[in-house]
Amino acid sequence: MLHRALVCSLLISLGGCDGASAPDAGSTVDAGSAVDAGSAVDAGSAVDAAPPDAGPVELPLLAVEDLEVAGAFRLPSATFGASDLNYANGVIALGATGETMFIVGHAHQQAVAEFRIPELVQGETLSELNMADPPLQPFVGVLDRVDNPQAISRVTGMWLQDGALLVNGVEYYDAPGDNTHTTLVLRDASDLAGSTVDGYFRLEGRAHASGWFSAVPEAHREALGGAMIAGNSSGLPIISRLSVGPTAFVFAVDDVVGGAEPIPTSPLLDYSLATPLREDLANGGGDNDLWTHLSRAVYGFVVPGTRTYATFGHSGGHGPMGVCYKCVPEGRDAECGGYCSRDPRDYSLMYWFFDVEDLAAVRAGTMAPHEVRPYAHGPFESPFADGRPQMGGGAWDAERGLLYLTMLAADREQGRYANPPVVVAYRLR
Predict the structure, then answer these.
(1) How far is CA 291 from CA 326, 338, 371, in A?
(2) How many domains does the chain have?
């Protein structure tokens, strides 16, 4: 449990501390009540929830038990513009006020739409949740709006900065591992269909950095060397081009908006096939509960008021039967299409929490990026998840203290072939 000073400071935006009451664990949370979600980064935009006299080393580490479900909402399965949310990618970014959400739809089109976030409901069944209205901006394609010689085909991260939508992507099957230019800027996120699009820009960290974006709280910026993080992980085809574990690269958001060439990135957390987060990716020994061929992190952020870099995603094959490649899982009649768990029940959502002090040590040159290990990891609970649970993306609302995570294919009640994600919001206890 986090100490009282941290809880109070984190609940200020939720209306609770020193006798005032934060929203209880009841039925609804108004996700649109605050004025500014603080998505743009400047010297004071990221929430520093620590007591004023607390230094980074004195901040507590987050425990997974410190997170609780604040509520959830559904998304419609209908087609809007160029795509829909069935078989969705699920990468998200918050709008400028935190009242709307940009989301990537069907995996085939990789198009982006903007929805208004409805009132969150703490329900246990889909029928109890509010359904988002049709989008404020329907789905429009983004990846092929400019010359795309490296065939970038999957959106892996988004971030709103001063009215512009930053987009990271990768080629889904980059066999030679030669993607270098991975980042776009839609100059006017309020006009997705008509906006000028610039890019592709080159991140120094290449595919290791071309995933999620998140802000670094003020308290950690000096130690980590920047105000923004870009991250990614393995879990897509061609593992040799990716980090075999979650990453954290600090960068300057102005370099992306300004189209620097290349965009400098500094690795604080990074792995490779030669130096993975965990050996034995097939879990042949039956004791790998950390990272396998089936692991993928989809979002990471430094939790304000803590010294935790929290990453979230999904995994499988951690049980005694391990991971196989194009085998017939137990009880099934056909081979899986690639890597899969031999036990078809052996899949879960996952979290991996890292100590920011270790990332600072990498910045200081006393540790290598691949030497950092999570201080906590394990299965992550969600009230809404598919039979093979997977996350699509995440976003942190600093103003309201809400962590949004998309649970892919979790809504099977809108039609025979419909399976849009459910968005679940978490808050600190």
Answers:
(1) 19, 17, 15
(2) 1
